[in-house]
User: Fold this.
Amino acid sequence: MKRNELQNNLAMTVVLISAAMLFVTLFMGYAVYRSSADVWPPMGVAKVSLWLPFLSTILISVSSWYCYQVRLSVAKNDLPAAKNQLWLTTVLGIAFMLAQSGLWFSMKNSGVFVTSGIFASVMYGFTWIHAVHVVLGLFALGYLRWVLRKPAGDMLQKTINVEKFWHFLGVVWVVMFFGLFVF
Amino acid sequence: MSGGYNEIHPEPTTFWSKYIISFDHKVIAKQFLWYGIAFLGIGGLMALLIRWTLAYPGEAFPVIGHLLFPNSAGIVPPDSYAMLFTMHGTIMIFYAITPILIGAFGNYCIPLMIGARDMAFPMLNMLSFWFAFLSGVVLLASLFLPLGAAAGGWTSYPTLSTMIGSPGAGQTLWCVAIFLFGVSSTMGAVNYVTTVITLRAPGMGYFDMPLTVWGLWLTAILNAIFVPVLGAGVILLTLDRVMGTTFFLAGASATSGSGDPVLFQHVFWIFGHPEVYILILPAWGIVSDLLSFFSRKPAFGAKATALSMTSVSVLSTIVYGHHMFTTQMSPLLTQSFMTLTMTISIPSAIFFANWLGTIWKGSIRFDSPMLFSLGVVFVFGLGGLTGLHLGTVTTDLYLHDTYFVVGHFHYTMAASVLLGGYAGIYFWFPKMFGRMMNETMAKIHFWGTMIPLNGIFFGMLMVGYGGMHRRIYNPFVYDSLKRLMPINEMITVSAILMGAFQIIFVINFLWSLYKGKKAPNNPWNVGTLEWTIPSPPVHHNYDVIPVVKCGPHEFGNPNLKTGRDFQYQTEELVQGPV
Assistant:
């Protein structure tokens, strides 16, 4: 492995470890709330409908798959295909954000406000924090689109870094989907 | 993320690119140094205000009291007192010690000591400083809010730090500032970890790295892992304050569905205990090197010292519960945390013994960096020993939240790190600025710091043992604490003296910058890589990347025929006749 590749891989690994620690802390807090509650959701609070979280899971998963395809295309120096796949990745990422907005509106409309207690705090707070990271990820996809405008030596490495971050966001969402919404 | 591949970057030509948004690790190190020293002054002034209030309650602070507190005739009012100890702790830990020990020395020493031309990611490095700068601006801005800055203690425990305990925007800005500082620290950590792993000079194995680099590297690893934990905590606290969530609210303050205030304490100390080592590891590394350099002896058990520092770093991640013995933790947990805490004594004792082994029978040169290093050995020893009382459940239950805790952590985190920082500044100043600092003034500064410092922090141990609680505005309203007033006066007089002696440092620093004797390439006669190049180094550090052939502490080799008592790391280790 060339030194610059090693540097980039290491740096991205440290970034992902740091970001993972942030979410691990949130999940640790969630485990405390869940384990200390008599019932979850607390008495009088309805469970959130699975439809929009499920849709979000599908969208971010497919988006991740297209992101993987971007990397394969870049590795084969097929830039037109990579650009198309990156476009799809981004559109699905935006669709994920729209689904999240829908989720927040649906919770609000069903009477679960952000101030409605610890259950609402977790649902809104955790999804907001994840969404902020997704917005950063969308900026990273935009940056990658700029990188792909013409062939360059470090293009693949940059694609791999953005891909890792995007997959990371997908994995965090899947853990949130099962941890917060399903169980 | 694009980065340097150890190539020579073009030298910046404009003022803006040379001094403001410089990508050069040496310039960024100096930016962090100025930043840290400025905050050290602000935090130090706050300490004097706190101490004045405790020794002379109800009396106006001399000279500037009327200017700072016009509405209370120059007397520090109770709400400002809470704000002062909160901001003093926050500033000293995050905005003074961290920028100087990690930001300045990390940036300056790592590339130079490992034979690199810059950090792996120079632009990220520049951003790291400016995020820290922005964070400092936010924190200072909070001092000018109508209800003042944060006042819930540097730990910002809920419920004190929620809207119920701290109305106004001060605490919110504190959270924002800490989060921004965390982003800066994480950026730095990414750079330090990557740089040490990928940009070491050819021939430099991990155990050929100076122990300073070991300390900074381990610090960066801990930073990358644990700063985001605090990040998560302050985000949730901010949401509680701004958006109305109830993560840390309980009981009557949480109108529907209860959060958990103690959870914040867990989150804070999962970060907070490693943070202690994040701050002290660079000082340990610096002292481990300097003791060898100025004893003219190889560092005794250098590998064991490096591995002990690593062990302490690992153990620091699983002992945080000793900060929370009084939170109704189960006895099983308290005893587990106590046992784990005690195990830290083993690696700590190993490298402490190595320090003593290094100076034992050495040809000690009592130059200022050595004096400050010996000071660290003394104060850290004392701080470490008093930690045993607090790591043990039975004694901690009595001493918790007393000034004994304040004395202990000031000995370990403040005194050790401050003296270690001064040791580093006196040692690398010639390399940084190309001039020598005045040695006589440095020695006066040392004794003027060391003696009052012990007056302050040993006094704190005494009043704490006597039962004085921390964070009480006027403890002497309680009859049982009135007898501690003379010791408190002694502490305050010591603090004023120590503060006054820092003026000598500032004068020496500024005077030496412009008028100090020109520094030779290697004024201290040591062999690490940075002393093989001019003082100050050229923009790209090394014209040719050095090849490392021996360790950093090669002193007193009887087979040396060079007329020197040390070898440069670029020289083949001289062997005796076989």
